[in-house]
Specification:
Layout lengths: L2 H15 L2 H10 L8 H13 L11 H11 L3 H6 L2 H19 L8 H8 L1
Helix pairs in contact: 6-7
């Protein structure tokens, strides 16, 4: 993204959010939220942008549920799933495991896995 595209995006964000998003982004970039917990940060962000609090005890809306997952759900496999190379290796490992269990009766259909299996 070049400088012009970045400027256009910034102007569009200012128009769409009425400066709220830009101010909060600026404060966050300059370390004003460094000393608070993630839960507190999300509460402040939602309160500032949407004018309401998040109910972490009983999330009802889709947005609240996503915020709850960010704070309370820490499965180690999620870090593997966001890296495309780790995901490919994970899938290959699962396919190899399934092929070894089933014996020679199963032919994997994923070309990447076939390539790895034949090497």
């Amino acid at each position: 993204m070049n400088t012009f595209d970045s400027l256009v995006f910034s102007i569009q964000m200012v128009r769409a959010t009425g400066f709220r998003y830009c101010i909060y982004k600026y404060l966050g970039a300059h370390g004003h939220f460094r000393d608070i917990s993630d839960e507190e940060y999300l509460q402040k962000l939602c309160r500032y942008l949407y004018g309401k609090r998040i109910d972490f005890d009983n999330p009802k809306t889709f947005s609240e549920k996503l915020q709850w997952l960010k704070i309370f759900y820490h499965d180690p496999i999620l870090t593997k799933m966001v890296d495309k190379y780790d995901v490919k290796q994970y899938v290959v490992d699962k396919i190899v495991e399934a092929v070894e269990k089933a014996g020679s009766n199963v032919i994997p259909t994923c070309s990447y896995a076939v390539k790895v299996l034949t090497e």
